[in-house]
Design brief:
This protein is about 45% helix and about 20% strand. It has about 350 residues and is α/β, with parallel strands linked by helices. The protein has 2 domains: about 240 residues, TIM Barrel (Alpha-Beta Barrel); about 90 residues, Sulfite Reductase Hemoprotein, domain 1 (2-Layer Sandwich), CATH 3.30.413. The strands form 3 sheets. Strands 8-7-6-5-4-3-10-9 form an 8-stranded parallel sheet. It has a 5-stranded mixed sheet with strand order 11-12-13-14-15, covered by helices on one side. α7 runs parallel beside α8. The longest helix is centred in the middle third of the chain and has 17 residues. It is elongated, with a radius of gyration of 23 Å. The structure holds iron/sulfur cluster.
Length: about 350
């Protein structure tokens, strides 16, 4: 099992609940848009929000975000060690900073500040920005990504710093999976999982689900971010759906619906969309079945809390595989939506 690292008011690793992360894509210096986006992410269920900290102006405004946030905020620093020092000093719950990106003197200042403020460091290795020397030794491979991460770990450990979280991301799903597997076999620091630059919409969702999902099913990974182009709230929704679909969270309603075929005689898609709308902010564990026909529907959704299966003129309502009522389609649809509303409460 991985080590447990405290990040603000939550823990990452050591068998703790897998936390969901995202990152703002507003201008950090723009208070209104960034604070609004942090709130949207929190409302969507995000556990940790990261912000890009680019200069000392950002540091100033971040003090305000930190004092107002109900969840841990993380500073993303690229090269300037002074920003890393300042981020730990103003109370960021974690920083993402690569030790190799600064001099040893700069790094020792970062480490002192992180120690004094109990601020962990995430070492974030990306396949796209590997050191030349490792690239020529192993190419872009699980070996080079892992060695790069462990080199950084080693530098921090030599400074007696162990509050570490690691990521070894790649946009190639197989490379990402193999790299995390190799890394997990060599370290017990908690791992932040993600398929970096996974893309837009469905492409990104599929890549992230395979990469993150398969590792989590193998017991690897402690915190996740579904990297998607677009509104970061979608990242959170996708991450929560992913965790629920593999049984690592139990706080979302699931809609089971059939793909329809020539046996379906009612507008199943419209019904699914209505259910989705009703369930939008529901954080109860529910299973709702919307099936096209009575022949297979109730049987295939046996464990659904409530379900509807359409017919030519009549539809059936069922619960936990048992028939409740057979009604004309329109009436059945109406009653089903009422039943769903009362289940949501
Ligand atoms: S449940 Fe019925 S309508 Fe839906 S795909 Fe199966 S056979 Fe077709």
């Amino acid at each position: 099992m991985s080590k447990k690292i405290k990040v603000g008011n939550i823990y990452i690793g050591g068998g703790e609940r897998i936390s969901v992360q995202s990152m703002t894509n507003t201008d950090t210096a723009d208070y209104d848009s960034t604070s609004a986006q942090i709130k949207q992410l929190v409302n969507a269920g995000c556990d940790i929000v990261r912000l890009a900290v680019r200069d000392m102006n950002d540091i100033e405004i971040c003090k305000r975000y930190i004092s107002e946030s109900t969840i841990p905020l993380v500073a993303d620093i690229q090269f300037d060690y002074r920003l890393a020092v300042a981020s730990a000093d103003i109370g960021f719950s974690k920083i993402r900073f690569n030790p190799g990106n600064t001099s040893l003197t700069g790094l020792s200042e970062v480490v002192s500040s992180c120690k004094a403020n109990s601020c962990p460091i995430r070492i974030g290795i990306n396949a796209g920005s590997l050191e030349k020397e490792l690239k020529s030794k192993y190419g872009v491979s699980p070996e080079s990504l892992t060695e790069s991460a462990l080199k950084s770990v080693n530098i921090l450990e030599k400074m007696n710093f162990n509050d570490i979280i690691i990521s070894v991301k790649a946009s190639d799903v197989k490379l990402m999976i193999d790299s995390y597997k190799l890394l997990a076999s060599k370290t017990d620091y908690p791992l932040h999982l993600g398929v970096t630059e996974s893309g837009y919409g469905m492409d990104g969702l599929i890549k992230s689900s395979i990469g993150i999902g398969s590792l989590l099913l193998d017991g690897i990974g402690d915190t996740i971010r579904v990297y998607l182009t677009g509104d970061p709230v979608l990242e959170v929704k996708a991450a929560l759906s992913l965790l629920n679909s593999i049984g690592l969270r139990n706080d979302r309603a699931e809609i089971v619906s059939c793909p329809t075929c020539a046996r379906c005689f009612y507008d199943l898609e419209a019904m699914v969309l209505k259910c989705k709308e009703l369930l939008n902010n529901c954080n109860k564990k529910l299973k709702i079945a919307v099936m096209g026909c009575v022949v297979n529907g109730p049987g295939e959704a046996e464990d659904a809390d409530i379900g509807i299966a359409g017919g030519k003129e009549k539809a059936v309502l069922f619960s936990k595989g048992k028939l409740i009522e057979t009604l004309p389609v329109k009436e059945a649809e109406e009653k089903f939506l009422n039943m769903l509303s009362s289940l949501i409460g």
